[in-house]
Amino acid sequence: MQGRSLWPSLRDGQGQSSRQDVYCEYYNAMPWHHDPHPPHATMVRTDRHKLILSHGDAIGELYDLDADPNETRNLWSDPEAVAIKLEMLQRMCDRMAFTVDPLPVRRASW
């Protein structure tokens, strides 16, 4: 599994990270989930916002964590949150692309 050590940020006692967001995925990893069908879900979270997408279901969750730290008001369908939703979906797409298993080293130009 690919990853990067958090030890340097933990060792200095500050616990600070240079990350702009956190990405998490769940792709039906539990073999006992059969009915109803298990979600294929991804989540991306910044300091202020959290977006969760249930793939194939056209549903999701979007929260403003400053205004709603307990995540009780889902902004997914709120027309005023469209710009935030699009930014968070772009972040999610980037994380999905950048966290795939790396391909073997290219040996030819084609």
Provide keyphrases for this structure:
110 residues; alpha+beta; Arylsulfatase, C-terminal domain; four-stranded antiparallel beta sheet; 4 strands
CATH topology: Arylsulfatase, C-terminal domain
Strand order of the largest sheet: 1-2-3-4
Order of helices and strands: HEEEEH
Helix tally equals: 2
Strand content: 15-25%
Q: Briefly, what CATH class?
A: Alpha Beta
Strand count, sense and barrel status of the largest sheet are: 4 strands, antiparallel
* CATH level-two architecture: 2-Layer Sandwich
Helix-strand makeup class:
alpha+beta
The backbone outline, from C-alpha atoms, is: globular
Residue runs with pLDDT of under 50 for 5 or more positions: none
Overall mean pLDDT stands at: 84
Tally of individual domains: 1
Radius of gyration equals 17 Å
Amino- and carboxy-terminal Cα gap? 28 Å
Helical fraction: 10-25%
Write the layout of secondary structure elements.
Layout: H1 7-11, E1 22-27, E2 40-45, E3 49-55, E4 59-64, H2 82-98
Antiparallel strand pairs: 1-2, 2-3, 3-4
Protein name: DUF4976 domain-containing protein
Organism: Devosia algicola
InterPro entries: Alkaline_phosphatase_core_sf, SGSH_C
Short overview:
The protein has 110 residues and is of the alpha+beta class. It is built from 2 helices and 4 strands. Helices cover 20% and strands 23% of the residues.
